[in-house]
Design a protein that fits this description.
This protein folds into two domains: 165 residues, no CATH class; 53 residues. Helix content is 44%, strand content 12%. It has seven helices and six strands; from the N terminus they run αββαββαββαααα.
């Protein structure tokens, strides 16, 4: 059976894995899109991607090329396992005042740890950091105790990529609940980012504190709304 599959895969025509396409409204490379679809099939719902390719100041240059995604923090433990089981490395990131809102940051290991095609130098360094048990941040400190790491380590190979075209992973059904949860999660992520930026503003500005108070109130409402929705 494996030999039959190999023959099917060799005959399957696939797009350049390093070429860019839009997925869930974000610019990504095709390899990352394929791996994300596999993770979504495992989870049973579509991921809310906060950032794909782009140069957000807080990202430290990790998103200026492909293979790096940030996802909404909802259900982050399951997302973390699913993405890593597919071949991503990464970390759930908590809210940091003046820097970023809560999110999950993940980088695809495609073909090998050392593959530098369509990936920013900073993101490639994070792959090395992850496999050393570190946190991928500027200081390269230790990862949180108990952080999930698949054993054996997982890499998304060219064979895996071709397989997503030969036998596309099941596409999660988009229901009204799914769409509502995506919109709420995206809104919450934007609020968290706004609060992080406002927190960096000098304390003497009363208007800024008032804005932060209003945004945090909205954040609590959104969080409760997400909890009230049935599982997607």
């Amino acid at each position: 059976m494996p030999r039959i599959l190999d023959r099917v895969l060799r005959r399957t025509t696939v797009p350049d894995p390093y070429a860019l396409s839009t997925y869930h409204g974000k610019l990504l490379d095709n390899a990352t899109i394929a791996a994300t679809k596999v993770a979504e099939a495992i989870l049973g719902y579509q991921l809310t991607i906060i950032q794909g390719i782009g140069g957000a100041a807080a990202s430290g240059g990790t998103h200026i090329e492909g293979r790096a995604i940030d996802v909404a923090p909802w259900d982050i433990s399951r997302k973390d396992r699913a993405l890593k089981d597919v071949g991503f490395i990464g970390w759930p990131r908590g809210y940091v005042p003046g820097l970023w809102g809560a999110h999950g940051h993940y980088v695809l290991v495609f073909e090998s740890r050392s593959n530098a095609r369509r990936i920013a130098a900073a993101a490639l360094r994070q792959i090395g950091s992850f496999f050393r048990g570190r946190n991928g941040l500027k200081g390269d400190g230790p990862d949180v105790q108990g952080a999930y790491r698949p054993k054996p380590e997982r890499v998304f190979t060219m064979k895996d990529y071709r397989a997503t075209f030969a036998t596309p992973p099941p596409k999660p059904t988009r229901t009204r609940v799914t769409r509502a949860r995506n919109r709420l999660a995206e809104a919450q992520a934007k609020i968290d980012q706004a609060v992080a930026l406002l927190d960096a503003t000098p304390d003497a500005r009363t208007a800024v504190h008032r804005e932060i108070t209003d945004l945090r109130r909205a954040d609590r409402i959104l969080e409760q709304s997400l909890k009230d929705l049935p599982p997607r």
